[in-house]
Amino acid sequence: MPPREVAYRVFAAELLASLEEDRPPGDRVAAYLLSPYGSRMSRVLVAGELTPAETSGEDGNAPWLRSRLTDPTGTITVTAGVYQPRALAQLRAISTGTLALVVGRTHLYRGRDGVGYVSVRAEGLRPIDPARYHLHLIETAEQTLDRLDRLRELENSGSAGEAGSAPELTAARAILARYPNVDREAYRRSLRAVLEAVARPGREGSVAAANPPPALRDRVARSPDLDRHGPDPATEGLVLAILDEIAEGSVDGYADAKELFARLAERGIPAARAESLLERLEGAGSVEEPLVGKFRRP
Questions:
Q1: Is 208 a residue whose pLDDT tops 50?
Q2: Which of the listed residues 129, 164, 190 is the one where a domain comes to its end?
Q3: What does the pLDDT look like over 223-266, one tens digit per residue?
Q4: Burial zone of 87 (CB within 10 Å; 0-12 exposed, 13-18 middle, 19+ buried)
């Protein structure tokens, strides 16, 4: 019997940016979702604000529930069906938005237009308190930075260091080949939002027991800050091109922020980076937001 797959700790933004799969040969073999930020994952462990589930589909004999989980980096869809009876019952029990820890399998669906949609098919979940949630954020940030460091080392020197095993090296090389133009430093900087969430008071107004370790703050702070070195014309051009494409295809002539951020995430630009670019483009007069969440060219 094959060993159970390890569940990677990941943030929503990393899952949303993961649009490539690695499918080993053979029948009934699990597919691995390849992340541009270093994960090769079949199972994941995620945590955040989980909404009450909604029924998806009309077959009462095969119920399918869908919920949304939001962490400081974004929002991911969580599902469960008859083949996940424990998670199905646990999702049904969530009646109000609550902090929860979810373990499950990654699922990548491509529509007829070729656009990929990532979700987590839950195996189990449970509510957690703010202190446990903050600990999860810290541990996930540390593991994410470890993966980013390995990819950076491989890019710079052609090796993943003494700690990298053969499977890790193979996975890292595959990730670099599948995502050749991803801005990984922008994603590293976006982890500052995670540290800010950890430092905020808990729901009851008390500061959680977990605080970002100084070493973790230093690792995030040491990443290059491209914004301080002026505009990035290539990336800004990509933002404008996608904005124009969405606006031209919409009924009202605007680019909806949710769709714009999702499309940019597919191109390796996380939400925090996208917001920064849009602010700069608005300041330069290249973009305007006449309605909240609706962008267009002036």
A1: no
A2: 129
A3: 544 444 445 676 788 888 899 999 998 889 999 988 998 888 87
A4: buried
Domain final residue pick, 129, 145, 167: 129
Is pTM beyond 0.85? Reply is no
How far, in Å, CA of 146 to CA of 240, rounded? Answer: 32
CATH number of the domain that residue 257 is part of: 1.10.10.10
Tokens of 12: 């929503």
Higher pLDDT, 162 or 35: 35
How far apart CA 295 and CA 257 sit, in angstroms, is: 7
> DSSP for the chain?
-PPPPPEEE--HHHHHT--EEE--SSTTPPPEEEPTTS-EESEEEEEEEEPPPEE-SS-TTS--EEEEEEETTEEEEEEE-TT-HHHHHHHHT--S-EEEEEEEEEEEEE-TT--EEEEEEEEEEEE--HHHHHHHHHHHHHHHHHHHHHHHHHHHHSS--TT--HHHHHHHHHHHHH-TT--HHHHHHHTHHHHHHHHSB-TTSSBPS----HHHHHHHHTS--GGGG---HHHHHHHHHHHHHHHHHSSSS-EEHHHHHHHHHHTT--HHHHHHHHHHHHHTTS-EEEETTEEE--
> Which CATH number is 46's domain given?
2.40.50.140
Lowest mean pLDDT among 7-16, 58-67, 92-101, 181-190: 58-67
Stretch 131-159: mean pLDDT, rounded? 86
For residue range 161-179, what is the model confidence (pLDDT) as tens digits? 444 556 677 778 888 888 8
In a domain, 212, yes or no: no
Task: Give the pLDDT score at 166.
Answer: 64
